[in-house]
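Hey L., structure's done. Input below.
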Amino acid sequence: MSLITSSIGQGLLWGILALGLYLTFRILNFPDMTVEGTFPFGAAICVSALVHGVNPLAATILSFFAGMVTGLVTGLLYTKGKIPVLLAGILTMTGVYSVNLRILGKANVGLLNKNTLLNGQLLQKLPINFPTIVVGLIIAIIVIVLLAVFLDTDLGQAFIATGDNEKMAQSLGINTDNMKILGLMLSNGLIGLAGGLLAQNGGYADVNMGIGTMVIGLAAIIIGEVVYGDLSLTARLVAVVIGSIIYRLILLLVLQLGFSTNDFKLISAIILAICMMLPLFEQKFRTRKLLKKGVEKP
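Output:
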């Protein structure tokens, strides 16, 4: 039971990262490699702040703003420097690695005996792993509500229009470059926040903890979409978080089958590949079914 509750808690925290990735991957419709640098950057800022006695809530908020900075850098390289978004993200990710080493002073820093957002006095009274679920659920709800409100505003609609059809958005007087920068900042802000939360949950920050995070976020998005199908935009945000929980439960099942934790990244890639191919399989199945019905008609 404790493994299940742990997976649910982890899923909620990783769901924050998936929500951030959803803004660029699905709404703006381009891949942002900055995520693998932003995630450990948010963790490094949060852990460094906690080690120096900063309030856990303030340290967590700092991780969000740290993520926004990396998003801003990638956005400026992409829109003003005219560097392709994939390469802009890689450049930022590479540069942030050295920044993380500067902030932490070494490859990893622990939070032993430090106050965090997940070990407050009230939360300590809850059963094991439930503090993570409570904090993760509260933050996920806040993020989903704020994103839903933002996307329903004129600015949010301009942001969506930029991803749907950039030329049409420009013809309507929307500054699409600013929308892209805004999207990258919000996206990476949430990814940095997820890094700070998961660092507190794991009890440490490591400069290499961002490896594979993009695959994890994409897996959560794809699983949520495959399981729930066509939904409203707000419902899709909820589905992304649920997809993240399902993904963690799948990993738990794989672990229970006897696989090593060293295989997790390979398994993550396989799960993502299968989920992304499901719509193709479904389309082929429907086509064959229709053809079969056509052949059977007299």
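Residues 7 and 248 are 5 Å apart (CA to CA). Residues 264-296 form the longest helix (33 residues).

-- N.
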